Amino acid sequence: MDNISVITMLTLSGLNGTANYRVPLFTVTLLCYCVILLVNVTVIATIIGDKNLHEPMYIFLCNLCINGLYGTAGFYPKFLSDLLSPAQIISHAGCLLQGFVLHSSASADFSLLALMAYDRYVAICRPLVYHSVMTKRRICVFVCFAWIVPFSLMLTSTITSTSRLCGSIIPKIYCVNWFINSLACSVSVTANVIPGFNYTFYFGHAVFVMWTYVYMIKICLKSKENMTKFMQTCLPHVFCVTGFAVSFLFDVIYMRLSSRALSQSVQNFMAMEYLLIPPIINPLIYGYKLTKIRKRIQHLCQMLLGQNYWVSGHRTGCHFFTPPNQVVQIKCFVLSVVQY
């Protein structure tokens, strides 16, 4: 029997050297997390509450926003707590759980973005069979697989990371399986094979997304109507895929080729980029670009602010509590000015 003690607590060393500005960093991080919660919950509530938005593209978008909340919930609460704590420690089990949440969220993002690409491919390249292909039952199956497959693959990957540890320092602001495995006393072949399979599997998703958009652009160039449709419904998805891919690539490069030449602040930004940019950008891009969602959100804002304020106060700059008959007169006046 050996005398090696069992390591149960790990230290996240990514915040070393940030003691002088942790309060401003905490404030900015909390603000970003609040924005993430606000924009994603707004899109989710808008889609769920409006039956006209219960279409495949919006259902996939709703799940994408839910996944954004799920992934960020695995990082921001712990990170905010660490910013206010003198020591950034986490249990081995908690580290495995955080790694599972972050890995499964990133994988689910790939699956959902691939589904959205397939939906746009059928809508543009095979419009006559769209409703027969994208049935409610098939959509439910797609969504279930988009969640179940990543969870199953990442659970298997996490289980293989439960080896005895010979180190306790993780040079990052959160836990991932790659760094947990690097602390193991001995790494099994399975611990290398399963992550390799996962990377290959989701690289196939990325190739599929790229192929569908290259093919769609080729088709849309032949028709002005199709190109207009592509710009309205596919362009937001292209931005989201690009943003997520670039952010995720930065994080992977940082993990695999971590360089001491980079400052700790740059390393931390690269580490949390895919947990910051996509969760904010995705709902903002879709909420602004997709007409149905934008109009629905505007309608909800009108209801929340009040019809009198919206028409007489915001639109015309008049007094907030204008009588109904005067509101009608103001509406007519505004319309006449616009037409003129």
TrEMBL record:
Keywords: Cell membrane, Disulfide bond, G-protein coupled receptor, Glycoprotein, Membrane, Olfaction, Receptor, Sensory transduction, Transducer, Transmembrane, Transmembrane helix. Pfam families: 7tm_4. It comes from the Eukaryota. InterPro entries: GPCR1_Superfamily_Member, GPCR_Rhodpsn, GPCR_Rhodpsn_7TM, Olfact_rcpt. It is found in: Cell membrane. It is a multi-pass membrane protein. GO terms for molecular function: G protein-coupled receptor activity; odorant binding; olfactory receptor activity. GO terms for cellular component: plasma membrane. Its main location: membrane. This is G-protein coupled receptors family 1 profile domain-containing protein. It comes from Channa striata.
